[in-house]
Task: inverse folding
DNA sequence: TGCATGTTTGGCATAATATGCAAATGTTAG
DNA sequence: CTAACATTTGCATATTATGCCAAACATGCA
């Protein structure tokens, strides 16, 4: 692992890390259906406004979402939609785990 | 976000989290070229044997790699090869960040 | 049996650091 | 100016990831 590889891996890991949180993952998936404003997330989750705003900031800084401010509202949308394609694969991993996750797997 | 969604998102996030570390990401990518034994990783990285073993255990427990013990050596291989497909997308995210990462991007 | 090689585990220090709430601050529309 | 929408700051808290060391375990070979 040379220096360049290391730097590149760190950059990639940072992107994955941003998605490696249940709340952020869920929000990213919601954005697959189109842009959403912060207030919509606040309505859908039982978190403080500031908490949600922070999570979105993490996704934004990772380059996963982009922001569009319109009027009083701030809309977030996926910047690189392919991030959701690989959720299929993550689900495949979970299925392959073959643990006692029957209940979980029924929803994949 | 109901209970089921939450549980599922937690499971997915756990998989991503396992890959969200430079060392583990690098190892997973190395495995794309075929199985490797622990000692090969030790030779390629400047980490303690135990450190590498622990990282591999994280990947294993996440369901990303599987183990094959042959003789004195332990071989690891990708259990769900598609995990590497989405690296293309992660790289796309990095490219899209368009920050001052020219040096980094030249290696994507 | 005993030793060398390869690997895992337990313990540990350290630092990091993520999370989510509360309060204060911005921003826009009306 | 006020209300609605959003971000930032500060903070407490707990968590916990990381990587080294030493010890234990496993396997093959002499």
Result:
């Amino acid at each position: 692992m040379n220096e360049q590889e290391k730097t590149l891996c760190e950059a990639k890991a940072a992107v994955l890390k941003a998605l490696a949180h249940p709340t952020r993952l869920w929000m990213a998936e919601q954005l697959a259906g189109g842009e959403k404003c912060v207030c919509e997330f606040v309505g859908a989750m039982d978190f403080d406004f500031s908490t949600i705003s922070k999570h979105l900031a993490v996704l934004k800084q990772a380059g996963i979402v982009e922001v569009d401010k319109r009027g009083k509202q701030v809309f977030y949308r996926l910047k690189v939609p392919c991030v959701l394609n690989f959720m299929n694969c993550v689900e495949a991993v979970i299925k392959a785990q073959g643990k006692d996750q029957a209940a979980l797997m029924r929803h994949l």
